[in-house]
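Appendix B. One record, verbatim.
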Amino acid sequence: MAALSRDTSVQLHLDSSEGKSILFKLLKEKFIDPGEHLTAVQELLGRLWDVTFKTVDLKKKFWPALSSADCCTATTYTGCTTLVTVLHVPYELGDNVVRYVLGRYCKVVRGRFLTLADYPQVFNGIRRYQVEITKDIPSSLRLGGRNCWVRYRGQQRTCLKCGVNGHEAKNCDQIKCYNCHEFGHQRKIVLQKSNARY
């Protein structure tokens, strides 16, 4: 059986839960006429939409406008990019730091800060990146002094406590100090040692 060719489709992940009205407003703003340029528009789970153009040339023509839209994240099925979401990132942490850390696992193509639905000028601590993955990205990365969760389709989940795959944090038997972030002891032992010096 031959592989499914998706060379005329793009996937849009909308920031708003308003769905169809936002999608068609976006298409209109980008001068995409559904009757003239599109073959199909399909709603998927989780604010995802498949938009299929009539030809590859039409997709190529409108791809720059869709991929730079502020109200959604666009991905193409023909490339080897993956949409990665990083949660709980401190706002003050520079985007170059997040990109640098992600760079250990992938090539970052583009990224953006997400905002609150009711207050689009207020950022919500979630950043979304389009990347070319070179090796599995752990479920949690230490960024700006906190553990930030990482999610993407097909991700092999790792323990949020020790970083190893095969179990979840609630079943992890590793002892981790949340003061110095080392394994093998707990925070109270570090505090006792530091108090003993004085």
